[in-house]
Amino acid sequence: MYVVPKALESLWLTARGHGLVFRVGNWGEGVLAGVGMGMVMTIYQNDPQHLSGLD
Full-prediction pTM beyond 0.90? Predict the structure, then answer.
């Protein structure tokens, strides 16, 4: 789950470079960060034992 946001960013940049997706201006990076954090927090809420502890 930690590498999925970076993989999505790479996929997005590749697709944008080939003209397959629209331009999002200055808020595209924030959307990607929000989706990534949402995925990590969903796992934290539902299955916290799958995440390594920082204790």
Answer: no
